[in-house]
Design goal:
Mean pLDDT: 90
Number of domains: 1
Distance between the termini: 28 Å
Largest sheet: 8 strands, mixed
Number of helices: 12
Helix content: 25-40%
Strand order of the largest sheet: 1-2-4-3-5-6-7-8
Radius of gyration: 19 Å
CATH class: Alpha Beta
Strand content: 5-15%
CATH superfamily: Alpha/Beta hydrolase fold, catalytic domain
CATH topology: Rossmann fold
Structural class: alpha/beta
């Protein structure tokens, strides 16, 4: 049987667009005032340019790594705040990088600090989705003086290869995808179509695999189709990215005690049907931080905000205003209470 990491790596290289970090919600359910927007690039110490988008002009600053996944869905949080989205190096609209430059989660931590310093922010709130839920926690460990509050969305577990019991993990990723369409993608790969027609293949793969990112297939309409407009997100490029970058995640040897010393409030949000990062990992995180709570999205998958946008965004807004959401649980045991299942 494959290890959890081996299965994860297979998903990353075969289903590269939607398999791990590939979702952003269309703002189809709520009409909001359009906040002021500026964008541009930030130069890091090694010359890599990071694309950023600044939304709103409120006094509370929130940094959201992964503009390509979280914008524009999270713009509804801009009232009274300044949201600073950015794309990680080699992703989205940021610079692609060669083998002469770092491409690790540790470098992501350094790049987050470069973004904070660029805008001369004294302290910020952080929102980290998927592996970035781990990354923002690592940043807080290294730079606690700059962090007010942390939101983790479907974070990968602290112990990456940890096995969780059936009730704390979702079913097989591939089982959620139409088998005939998946076989067609595999045929195209054998024919080298991703190389000869990179954008066209990207669009076809995204259309097939995105269903695994939501708990209810009907919610797939809330996921946008803009990723394939960005060459960094073409599978032909992402395969190499994942091979380099996620090796650094696999090799992490983090001490939970380092995170247990942090006193910042942390809201972890996790769907019970997350096929990409086990729900048990979210419960683990909520027990690791001393001042944390867990918002469980029942039936939600990796893009939990697409499955229940009102629950998720209202909870984040409440949390960023300084209060715990009513539905947030103070986790004291890995297994959820019977009444919550």
């Amino acid at each position: 049987m494959q290890s959890r990491w081996a299965h994860f790596a297979t998903v990353m290289t075969v289903l590269t667009i939607s398999g791990y970090l590939g979702c952003a919600e269309k703002d189809v359910e709520r009409t909001v005032a359009v906040p002021p927007v500026t964008d541009g690039f930030i130069a890091t110490a090694d010359g890599t340019r990071l694309y950023y988008r600044r939304v709103g002009d409120g006094p509370q600053s929130v940094i959201l790594p992964a503009d390509l996944f979280l914008h524009p869905a999270f713009d509804r949080l801009a009232t009274g705040r300044t949201l600073i989205y950015y794309d990680m190096r080699n992703r989205g609209q940021s610079d692609s990088v060669g083998t002469d430059r770092e491409l690790t989660i540790q470098q992501d931590v350094l790049d987050l600090e470069a973004v904070r310093a660029h805008f001369q922010l004294g302290s910020v709130d952080l929102v980290g989705f998927s592996y970035l839920g781990l990354m923002v926690a690592m940043y807080a460990k290294d730079h606690p003086q700059y962090v007010r509050r942390i939101v983790q969305l479907g974070p990968v577990p602290l112990q990456f290869d940890k096995e969780y019991p059936e009730g704390l993990r979702a079913g097989d990723y591939y089982a959620a995808i139409d088998s005939t369409a998946l076989a067609d993608l595999q045929r195209l790969q054998k024919e080298n179509y991703p190389t000869t027609h990179p954008r066209e293949y990207c669009l076809r793969e995204d259309a097939v695999t995105r269903v695994a990112l939501v708990g209810d297939p009907a919610n797939v309409v809330r996921l946008n189709q803009g990723l394939c407009d960005k060459p960094n997100e073409w599978p032909i490029h992402l395969a190499g990215h994942f091979a380099r970058h996620f090796t650094s995640v696999q090799k992490l040897a983090l001490d939970p005690a380092d995170f247990a010393r942090l006193d910042q409030p942390v809201l972890t949000i996790h769907g019970t049907l997350d096929r990409n990062a086990a729900y048990g990992g979210g419960r683990d995180w909520a027990m690791t931080f001393p001042n944390a709570r867990l918002l469980t999205v029942k039936g939600g998958a990796h893009c939990a905000w697409a499955d229940d946008p009102e629950l998720v965004f209202d909870a984040i807004d409440t949390f960023l205003r300084g209060s715990w959401p009513n539905a947030a649980e103070q986790v004291t045991q890995l297994e959820p209470p019977a009444t919550a299942q």
